[in-house]
Amino acid sequence: MALEESHVRRAAHLARLAISDDQANRFVDDLSRILEMVDQLQQVNTDNVAPLAHPLDATQRLRADEVTETDRREQYQRCAPATEEGLYLVPRVVE
Amino acid sequence: MHDQTVTQLAAALKSGELSSREITAHYLQRIERLDDKLNSFISVTAERALNAAEAADKARADGHAHALAGIPLALKDIFCTQSVKTSCGSKMLDNFVAPYDATVVEKLEAAHTVSLGKTNMDEFAMGSSNENSHYGPVKNPWDLKAVPGGSSGGSAAAVAAGLVPAALGTDTGGSIRQPAAFCGITGLKPTYGRVSRYGMIAYASSLDQAGPMARSASDCAHLMNVIAGHDVRDSTSAARGVPDYTENLDAPLSGLKIGLPKEYFGDGLDADVERAVREAVRVYESLGATVREVSLPHTHYAIPAYYVIAPAEASSNLSRFDGVRFGHRCEDPKDLIDLYTRTRQEGFGEEVKRRILIGTHTLSEGFFDAYYIKAQKVRRLIRQDFLDAFEDVDVLMGPAAPTTAFNLGAKKDPVSMYLQDIYTIAVNLAGIPGISVPAGFAHGRPVGLQILGTHFAEAQLLNVAHQFQQATDWHRHLPALAEENA
């Protein structure tokens, strides 16, 4: 499946990654070669094979729906770029 | 002292011949003297280490010390540590001090081991040469022109040069075994889920696994005794008992059935690496093992499947780096989208961006079935290859990498770098354990023998590796750099 610049642009937008025109061209080249290598997968017959998401076929364990964490907001916010009164600061979203 | 194993140092601590303070000061001094050449550490925490060493000596004096109390170790900079920077080799986390410790860090501290610092790595563990670090490449102590392998290249180089007796690494597609091979040390990737991933910065969550890197299999066994086990904070951690990994080390190997996957001895394997590996297999025959050829027919598809699954998981895992809650943030964002996109543009390096874009693309509408679901189906076939092989043999053996360490800057094209991991990557897809042990030299650089076992067969792998190290001395060789002004 050939990769076009529009695919790279769309992926960059979805991944919230700013890329320059130069970079976009380079990524088209790099990603095309990677996907060409990946396309070998299409040679494998996988009829009646179930996808494997977890190497041990384990399922998520359940636990009782009880609060186990203590409030450590101050500690967790110490590594944040900008906070105020316990809130994370971001550029204004609603005028 | 720097040529001693953890096992030897632990005996010296137990007898009182050495104190942890003496050992710790010795290794710190070696880091100070030699690491300028290697760049194997991102952070050295000398003062903390000396304090921890004193606490370990006191615990020993009080008579309630763990067998490894006072042993200096290093942590790949992917493990979260309170009060010490955890960068994951990225500009994105250059200012990040975690508010909690990884489970393995807690366990190592509870055993009174002494962390000397955090080791260099490919950014977010994405790489096979350690050239993708924000903090610059690590050099291979056997030849400063060569890479140490990746992504746990700092840990491998530091152990090989005798800057620390052992270290922790992580392995998503070969990141413990390949650098262990390139640097001439022993490195174990445990079964997926055997060691907790809590506090280990996630790259590809269904593949990532932490493990020990050391001078011997016996040392890896001692470390596994500390770090392995179920953790309620990691929902994928295996809820099953942990054996004493040292118990079985001395078991004889007579009757051991070894399989040599024919796909691991094909095109692309360096002839001198092959010679060293086949010589190692002959050592096993002399120890009473039998050898037969086996086939892992889907080997060729492991790298293609990995480069769908790992980037897909990575693109999702790395979405958390948004400039809001931790890590790098761009200057003067004009709106929220600008904050996200510029923060991520500035914070991530090239290889990380490539993998985020690949993962986002293959998961996106119109491509998901053809790439992601297809890769997961092939993943099942790859795992089945191993399960079928282990019906007939006890362990599989082959090279850890197709060549010895290549030169810095030698692999500019991403795909040629990816193909380096041909013998290690399928193991992560299958979730089985693997160990690389030193098996001689080719072109003056170390060769690693890789030994693979079925799920949760770590004790057997360690036994098989240990017996080889009783019969050979490849693991005792040190690079010339380690002996400079020793």
UniProtKB/TrEMBL annotation, chain A:
Keywords: ATP-binding, Ligase, Nucleotide-binding, Protein biosynthesis. It comes from the Bacteria. SUPFAM superfamilies: Glu-tRNAGln amidotransferase C subunit. Its EC number is 6.3.5.-. InterPro entries: Asp/Glu-ADT_sf_sub_c, GatC. It catalyses: L-aspartyl-tRNA(Asn) + L-glutamine + ATP + H2O = L-asparaginyl-tRNA(Asn) + L-glutamate + ADP + phosphate + 2 H(+); L-glutamyl-tRNA(Gln) + L-glutamine + ATP + H2O = L-glutaminyl-tRNA(Gln) + L-glutamate + ADP + phosphate + H(+). Belongs to the GatC family. Allows the formation of correctly charged Asn-tRNA(Asn) or Gln-tRNA(Gln) through the transamidation of misacylated Asp-tRNA(Asn) or Glu-tRNA(Gln) in organisms which lack either or both of asparaginyl-tRNA or glutaminyl-tRNA synthetases. The reaction takes place in the presence of glutamine and ATP through an activated phospho-Asp-tRNA(Asn) or phospho-Glu-tRNA(Gln). Heterotrimer of A, B and C subunits. This is Aspartyl/glutamyl-tRNA(Asn/Gln) amidotransferase subunit C. It comes from Vreelandella malpeensis. The gene is gatC.
Automatic annotation (TrEMBL), chain B:
It comes from the Bacteria. The active site is at K76 (charge relay system), S151 (charge relay system), S175 (acyl-ester intermediate). GO terms for molecular function: glutaminyl-tRNA synthase (glutamine-hydrolyzing) activity. Pfam families: Amidase. It is an enzyme of class 6 (ligase). It catalyses: L-glutamyl-tRNA(Gln) + L-glutamine + ATP + H2O = L-glutaminyl-tRNA(Gln) + L-glutamate + ADP + phosphate + H(+). Keywords: ATP-binding, Ligase, Nucleotide-binding, Protein biosynthesis. SUPFAM superfamilies: Amidase signature (AS) enzymes. PROSITE patterns: AMIDASES. Its EC number is 6.3.5.7. HAMAP family: GatA. Allows the formation of correctly charged Gln-tRNA(Gln) through the transamidation of misacylated Glu-tRNA(Gln) in organisms which lack glutaminyl-tRNA synthetase. The reaction takes place in the presence of glutamine and ATP through an activated gamma-phospho-Glu-tRNA(Gln). Belongs to the amidase family. GatA subfamily. Heterotrimer of A, B and C subunits. This is Glutamyl-tRNA(Gln) amidotransferase subunit A.
